[in-house]
Design brief:
The chain is of the alpha+beta class and 186 residues long. It is built from four helices and nine strands. The strands form two sheets. It has a five-stranded mixed β-sheet with strand order 2-5-9-1-4. The chain has a four-stranded antiparallel β-sheet with strand order 3-7-6-8, with helices on one face. A hairpin with a 6-residue loop joins strand 6 and strand 7. It is flat.
């Protein structure tokens, strides 16, 4: 096995937020503030949870951030200025049972999905991506609850979860922005 390169994260936390403002950019900033990551220079990365990456609480993770630091994130974000329009951003995680294997993080953002539906969707995406790399056999046409049971019974996936933020567009037409993020720390 290769030694861990310097830029491979050792910790991750999941966070979310919503912001409203007359300017779209400022609503995004306010959502990042609610999530506790506004002080970071965010760099978006794709969807791999490194082996041995420890999941920590958002409070502990935010305390470890230095203002201005370059911070790798898997970020989902969505905005609307349409009154009452449902907007959502979600992050899903699937962690393998074997610590030396990598896991998957999924992200999705969009409109019209309620929190539970979005949470199941992103969790399903992450778990399905991991299941296919681990060789778990399942019926891709079955519902997520059925596949989830197959994944758990295999013993190869030990954790799946979702971090989701939804909101209805402001009734007065302010920009409403939602964010959900997996924040990596080195």
């Amino acid at each position: 096995m290769v030694d861990r390169p310097a830029l491979v994260p050792t910790k991750v936390f999941f966070t979310k937020g919503v912001g409203k403002h007359r300017n779209k950019l400022q609503s995004f900033e306010l959502a990042l503030r609610k999530a506790g990551i506004e002080q970071c220079n965010l760099v978006r990365v794709s969807s791999i949870l490194p082996p041995h990456c420890k999941i920590i609480t958002p409070a502990k993770g935010v305390d470890m951030i230095y203002p201005g630091q370059v911070t790798f994130v898997v970020l989902a974000e969505a905005s609307t200025n349409e009154p009452s329009r449902m907007v959502g951003a979600g992050i899903g995680l699937a962690q393998p049972g074997e610590g030396h294997q990598y896991g998957y993080i999924s992200e999705h953002h969009g409109y019209g999905m309620r929190e539970k539906v979005l949470a199941d969707y992103v969790e399903d995406m992450a778990a399905t991506m991991l299941a296919t790399t681990l060789g778990i056999e399942f019926d891709p046409e079955s519902d997520y609850d059925s596949r989830k049971e197959v994944y758990r019974m295999s013993g190869k996936i030990v954790r799946s979860q979702a971090c989701v933020q939804t909101a209805e567009g402001d009734k007065n037409g302010l920009w409403t922005t939602v964010v959900s993020a997996a924040v990596f720390l080195l």
